[in-house]
Structures are given as C-alpha cells and as structure tokens.
Amino acid sequence: MASQAGPAGASKATTLTDVARLAGVSIATASKALNGRAQVKAETRARVIDAAERLQFSPNALARGLLAGRSGTVGLITSDLEGRFSIPVLMGAEDAFGSGQTSVFLCDARGDAIREQHHVRALLSRRVDGLIVVGARPDPRPPLAAEVPIPVVYAYAPSEDPGDVSIVSDNVGGGRMAVEHLVACGRQRIAHISGDPTYGAAHDRERGALEALGEAGLALAGGRAYYGSWSEAWGRGATRMLLERDPDVDAIFAGSDQIARGVLDALHEAGRDVPGDVAVIGFDNWEVLATNARPPLTSVDINLEHLGRVAAQRLFAAIDGSTRSGTESLPCRVVARGSTTPLD
Amino acid sequence: MASQAGPAGASKATTLTDVARLAGVSIATASKALNGRAQVKAETRARVIDAAERLQFSPNALARGLLAGRSGTVGLITSDLEGRFSIPVLMGAEDAFGSGQTSVFLCDARGDAIREQHHVRALLSRRVDGLIVVGARPDPRPPLAAEVPIPVVYAYAPSEDPGDVSIVSDNVGGGRMAVEHLVACGRQRIAHISGDPTYGAAHDRERGALEALGEAGLALAGGRAYYGSWSEAWGRGATRMLLERDPDVDAIFAGSDQIARGVLDALHEAGRDVPGDVAVIGFDNWEVLATNARPPLTSVDINLEHLGRVAAQRLFAAIDGSTRSGTESLPCRVVARGSTTPLD
DNA sequence: CACGTACCCGAAAAGGCTTTCTGAATCTAT
DNA sequence: ATAGATTCAGAAAGCCTTTTCGGGTACGTG
Asked: How far is CA A93 from CA A74, A304, A305, B251, in A?
C-alpha cells in the first residue's frame, strides 16, 4: 500500500471531467457544485461531492491560477544562511496566509545579488502574487534590482527606498526596553556591550538604551558602549575590559545573545554572581542560547514570527490593491529569565 | 522608478502573443524560437528573441506546467521549528535542482500530523512533482498519511516503511569517527555523554563509538554511556558525575554540540584544561555553538547540505522513473578544532 | 391554454503555452 | 522543366478550470 508513483509520468491525476462523468453532470455543473456556487440543486451537489471524494479529486491549482491571473503563491527570498530569521518569518507568514490558500516558495540567495536576481526572475515566471524579502542583517538593503510588477515587502531588513514597504523590529525600542527592565530590577550602573559597529541596528539599540538611561537619570557604566563583533569571544573580552574600567557595574546590556553568553562566561570567571552582583540581558532571544545559559538568559525578543505575520498581511493588502508604503517598526518584548532576577 | 504594482491586478504581463506580434510571426513560431526548437530560420529566431527581450517576456510557468503535466516544483515539508536542519537541506536541494529549473515550496508542519496532511494536500493540488520530508528528529517516522501519487524522499528522518526512499546521516559511522579521532589524538580513557535516550540515533552513535573503542582495545570510561537530555545543563551535570566516577578520563565524546558546551563548561569549572587534560568532541557541528566555544569545539559534521543535495537527486531520479528504494546512509566527517588538539 | 418566472444545468470561451500536423515555398536532381 | 526532397512558418488542438450566458423544465397565473 505504499505510494504508487508510476514510473515517469504516473497515471494521470483525476480531473474535473472525471468527476463530472461519474456524477453524470457537465464539468460546469461539477465546478459550481464543488465551489459552492449557487446554481446547483442540493441533491446534484451532493452527488458531485461524493464523486469527487470517491475519485480523490484535487483541483489543479495551475489551471485555476492560469485562469484567475493569480497563482495563490508568494516567494520568500532570504539570505540568511542559518535560517535563524527566515524560518520564524516563514512560519508567521504561513499563519497569516490562512493555511491552504497560499503557498510559499522559499529561495535562499546566499547573500549574492546575482542569485537573488535569478530567483526573482524564476518566481516571476511562476507568477507569484507577491514577494517577501528577508535580509541577512537588520540594516537597510538595496531594493530588488529588477523592477517587479508585483508587490514586495521587505522584512527584518528594510529597503533603502523609503517608498517600499518594509517591516522591521524596533531596535530603538528594544534597547530602551532592555535598560528599562534593568532599571526596574533596581540596577544603577548599567553598561552596554554590543557587536559589529557597522550594524546600524546596533547603534539604534544603543540609542534606545541611552534614552532610557537618561530618563532614569543614569549614565552608561564603563563610560561608553563597547563595540566589537557578534561573538562570544568579544563578549568575554569586553566584559574583562569593562570590569577593569568600572568594577562597580551592576548590569550589562548585551547587543546579542551570543555576546551575552560571553558576558556571562567572563563574569562567572571573575567571580561575579549573576544576577546577584551583575544582571545580564541579551538581545534576540535565541532560545537555544538563552535557555541553556547559566543562569538562563533574559533577552529582548524581536518577535520574528509576528514580523512574518505582519509582513504577510501587508503583502496581502498590497496584492489586494492597498498602496500604503513606508517602514513599519514592530515592538520588541522582554523575556525575563534568571539572569536579571530583581534584587531583594 | 520604484516597482509599479498597479492596484489589484497590475497591467497584464506580456505574453507569447505579444512577442509573436512584435516579431511578426505566429505564436507557434515564437515558441519554437525561444525554446531552441529546430524548425526556425536563424534570422527569424533572432528577431523573436530580440522581441522577447524588448518586452521583458517571461514565460508563464503555470501555463507551461499545465500543458506539460509537471510543474517543475517540489514540496519540502519540515517539522523542524528552528530551521536548524531544514535550511541546509533546502540549500542542498536548491543546488541539486540546477537553479531555475525547479522551485521549492517550503511548508512547516510544526510536528503536527494534521497540518502535515493539510500541506500535502495543498502541494498535491499545486501539482508538485515530488516531495521531500524532513523530520524533526533523526529517528524513523511514520510515512505520510495520505497515499500520494508522486515520489517522496524522506531526509534526515527516515520513513518507518523500508519500501520508501530515505536519506539519513550515518550515526553509527559518526560515532565511530568521533572515537577514532580521539584515539588518533592519543586518548585512552574516553567517555560518552549523550542526550535523550529515546532517540535511536543516540544509541546508533554509541554503537559506533563502542565499535571503534573495541577495535582500539579500549573500554568506555565512566563505565557506560550517560544519557540525559540534549541540553547544556545535562552536559554539565553528567560531566561532574563522570569526573567523580572516573577522574582519569582524558576525552569526552558528547552526543551533541549543546551537550559538549556543557561539558566544556563543567571541565573548565573543575579546573581541567581542554584539550590538555581532556579532549572534547561534539556532534552536529552547529557552527554558532562550535566556533564560539572556548576552546573552539571539534565536532562531527552531519553534512546536512550534502544530505539535501542527495535527497534532491534521488527525488529527481524517482520523478524520472527510477524505482530504487530503501534507506541510504551518508557519511559524516570530523571537523577538528581546538578542543581536541593531539597530545604532544 | 398561453405565458411569465424561477430554477438548474450545459455549451463554450478564456487563460498562455507547446506540439503536431499541414501547407507553402525553396531547392535538388533527373 | 518537372518530380521529389527540404526547409520553414502557421493553424489548431489540447492541458484543466472557471464563468458567462443561453436553453430547457416545471410551475404558477391570467
């Protein structure tokens, strides 16, 4: 009873004609019966539906799409090798596209503009109804090279063209939240260790953090934000520097969870208790890193799934004719874990 | 000059008819010219190609698929929330499907059989030419619920039905390699800390390890393999237990990179030098964990991208009528890093 | 009894492309 | 010069579905 994939070609799939024949009606009637159109007697409709089921009829979406002028598919182009960002976005999008109505082509451009271009062409040829472009890093990226005749939504990384539709997470707000959380935990001497300084998002997070600090009447511990790279090693190194410069620090806001892991490591090594002596908060809420840390890492969640859902909604709206454009920032949220337990 | 997505519907895409008209030939001739068919004079062909370019013609894959009976698409159904496994597999598959010829629908079933079923139906309706099913864990999984009329290849997790086509990584071989590597590094007292004992793959890895140990005339340090969960916390705890039971251990083979991270942590805490006193090897070669570890973690790579490539090839073969079936194991490879430097 | 009105159903066109088959024109050979 | 062989272009069928529109039946009404 295994799948009976006939060699080369398989036995023709059952078509509406087959159903109509079995039900003893015309294909037009069969179509209307199956699609819930009105002009069919209840009894006839039942007969058709029964026939369709018996034959395991599944309408040919290609033919349908050809006729309708829209395929019911969208393309999702990513450059995110790890799938760290794309998969949640994809899942959110799948959610939003009420299951079954829309399917998603996932293409990985691997950061290569040529390959991206190529995928766009292929997808256009498949008549996707829209495109979601997920960038490799949160900074603005050049818009798609080709002029495409279908709606495009940029997710995670906005398009450089403000006339495009972009959905990103609010890095400023996220930075603010991180500090507000630390302040709420009673911290006063808060430092910030971030990553690659070429990332605009990193500076956004710092800006949010500074705003929140200012409002709390505090200054950045360590004198300034520490920029380096998005690695644990940098987190460790920067923490060591920081402890030397400002031994009284009682909280560290890390620019990513990877950095936060390094921070935790270095603090541990220096004999500082977390969160007793120093509280630590990360960014991204990458579960596998955050939950396995010791102690479990509080982190700012950038809500990728939601981002995907919103991107899909905006794409849908655009497909249906909405003409809204611009960059939309989605709020982050703090997921509190053991690394920032409030002081007693 | 932004994309000019007309509200609802956009201006009709250019069709072969347009090209034919501009070139002053019939659509039949235009088709033949563009597809490299023989019966067209060189000069006519050039004229058609020129017209197609001028009009930015891109053939409607829906129409083509409708006619050809195959859509040039495949479905990839996964349940791997993180995308940890699916994305590399997808990339491998994309590679194998010589770019442009085949596009991939990616669907996430989220471990839910109902949702999986649903996706299968949707994909069938879209007339995908084949299906790749990527499991959530490496153990055998039930075959697709529905009887599908197209070829299916199971990747990462094999189907329980030996009559299906499955591509998996060779866990026994991987376990063997891990130990062989440690032995090659001069280690004699090798322990094994693995994860969730309900994972058959974990036992496969142990089996391979035991084989290699036997051939080297060694026994497992710690008396037996330690099973627990796939977490850093377990890696730490098990290491502490191990050190108590068998303080002379000079190498630890961890069942996953996450566990290995915990192992490194605990060893560090216990004052053992890695790799000086104890060498550590992980499994999966999850870059973000392995390269950021201190020291960088040697790990057994399960070659997911290759797995995806092979899966795609097998699927292609099946689509073209090949009838081969059964489970195929792909070899792993050791990626040596700082945690296992040979003893001097 | 003739006619209007619902109510159902079916014929046919459309959507864009490929392919086969036919036909016309050019060329070769006798 | 004419029969036969090539070469190239076009007409048309077909893939599968949806939808419009016209026709048929049954029924109620004047």
From this structure: 10, 10, 8, 45
- A157 touches A169 (CB < 8 A): no
User: For residues A71 and B52, what is the distance between their CA atoms, to the nearest angstrom?
Assistant: 23
Residues pairing with A140 in the sheet: none
Q: Is the pLDDT of residue A7 over 70?
A: no
- Helix, strand or coil, per DSSP, at residue B165: strand
**CA A151 to each of CA A74, A310, B61, B62, B248: distance values in angstroms, whole numbers, following the listed order:** 10, 14, 19, 19, 64
Pick the closest to residue B295 from A145, A319, A265, A6 (CA basis): A265
Strand D nucleotides in reach of protein CB atoms, 7 A cut-off: 7-12, 14-21
B184 touches chain A (CB under 8 A): no
pLDDT digits (tens, 9 = 90+) for A217-266: 999 999 999 999 999 999 999 999 999 999 999 999 999 999 999 999 99
B339 Cβ contact list (under 8 Å, min separation 6): B260, B264, B274, B275, B279, B280, B281, B282, B293, B295, B296, B297, B298
What backbone torsions phi and psi does residue A82 show, to the nearest 5 degrees? -75, -20
Q: Answer for the pair B126, A62: CB distance below 8 angstroms, yes or no.
A: yes
Confidence at B9, pLDDT banded by 50, 70, 90: very low
Domains of chain A by start residue, with CATH: 16-59 (1.10.260.40), 69-169+304-330 (3.40.50.2300), 171-302+335-340 (3.40.50.2300)
Measuring CA to CA, which residue among B303, B275, B71 is closest to residue B177? B303
Which of B288, B322, B327 is best to mutate for the A interface (most A CBs within 10 A)? B288
Q: Rounded distance, CA A311 to CA A332, Å?
A: 16
Facing A149 at nearest CB: one of B13, B73, B122: B13
Task: For residue range B230-258, list pLDDT tens digits in order.
Answer: 999 999 999 999 999 999 999 999 999 99
Query: How many CA atoms lie less than 13 Å away from B290 in the CB half-sphere?
Result: 23
**Residues B280, B283, B289, B290, CA torsion sign:** positive
Q: How far is the CA of A59 from the C1' of C19 (A)?
A: 25
Measured at the CA of A202, the angle between CA B87 and CA A219, to 5 degrees, comes to 145
Strands B326-330 and B165-169: parallel
B10: nearest CB among A2, A76, A150: A150
Q: Which bin fits A218, alpha (ψ -120 to 50), beta or left (φ > 0)? A: beta
Distance of alpha carbon B127 from alpha carbon B122, whole angstroms: 9
Query: CA of A232: which chain B residue's CA is closest?
Result: B292
Residues in chain B: 344
Q: Is the CB of B41 under 7 A from strand D?
A: yes
Residue A120: name the closest of B291, B263, A130 by CA: A130
